[in-house]
Amino acid sequence: MVCLELETFHLERFQSTWEHAVEYNLAESGVQPLALEELLGGKDVVERFMKRSLGYVHTNGSPSLRRNISELYQDAGEENVLVTNGSSEANFLAAWSLLERGDEALVMLPNYAQVWGLAKMMGGAAVPLWLRNRRGWNLDLEEVKEKVSRKTKLVAICNPNNPTGAVIDRTTLRGICEIAEDAGSWVLCDEVYRGAELEGGMTPSVWGIYEKAIATSGLSKAFGLPGLRVGWILARKDVANRLWAYHDYTTICVSAASDFLASLALEADNKARILSRTRRLLTSNWSILERWFGRHSGIFACEKPKAGAVSFAKYSVNENSTLIAERLVREKGVLIVPGDHFLMDGYVRIGYGSDAGRLEKSLALVSDFFERLGKRIRSGS
Ligand SMILES: Cc1ncc(COP(=O)(O)O)c(C=O)c1O
User: Fold this and answer.
1) Which ligand 1 atom is at minimum distance from the Cα of 226?
2) Ligand 1 centre from 379 Cα, in Å?
3) pTM of the prediction?
4) pLDDT per residue as tens digits for the range 32-64
């Protein structure tokens, strides 16, 4: 039996420990979640929901849900979709099915460290593909070329990126796929922030660019519905079917209530309403955060994110990011994510998708903390 050595997923452990205990949570990467009543709307939908049987649903997702998901992509059909419990299960199934001992995975960093950890556990080697601040957090195709090898089974990217909010354009996506194709590798693109752009159109999907590309996504971020735990895989029909067989071993299917509600959220009118709520929230909250960064430019430097509800800020105080986040949560009751969780000390991730009033209050506590810490360090006390 192969025994996998578990690598702690520090970001998830830290959030699980604190998110329900803190006064102010700026560690969230999605927008303020919708309430059930905002999604259900009118009386007849509520009635339909109440009459819903709580049996098992289609284990790959009900046809109506898969159809609605496929409509988020060009020229995709319900046969290309496998519904999963969150995009995290989608990523897990992709990594589990593709990676064997001795395989290498090129993984974009900084990044939500799930595939990074899985690649090390399942394949053995994860090779970083760095987004660099000085390049506006853009990926360097030359670096992808240099790092890819015959051992590279998988190139894993996240678009839009968590934590930087960077977006890869279609030309660069094609470039990544061409390099992967030359090496015979798969491309796994986590697109869970697609639809949460601050400006411009929707981020291009990897779907349709390359035969061996798998897109993962879900309703947790751009749709503000993380509690539904609905995600999906979008892939070639035979690949979606193959991954379905892996899904039989994990969670079988999503809950009947979630399948119904997810399908409802993705109906055309609801989809437009929810995505415009997300954009409104992000745009107005970003202006709060931008003003705050401006007032504290001696401490923080941060690129404007193109998408997503998080900002990745470099700070000038000479202290480790994990120590800072731990002290901040204990002393001020504000939760942020240390750069260490993205393998980038010297940075912190600050979410801005929450209610505007709470955001302002928490930011005031964060800057007060950093100012005092800076003074203490400078005076050596
Ligand atoms: C890039 C990325 N992928 C996946 C996930 C997990 O999301 P889900 O709730 O869909 O499982 C997260 C959560 O923060 C994320 O940032």
Assistant:
1) 9
2) 41
3) 0.97
4) 999 999 999 889 999 999 999 999 999 999 999
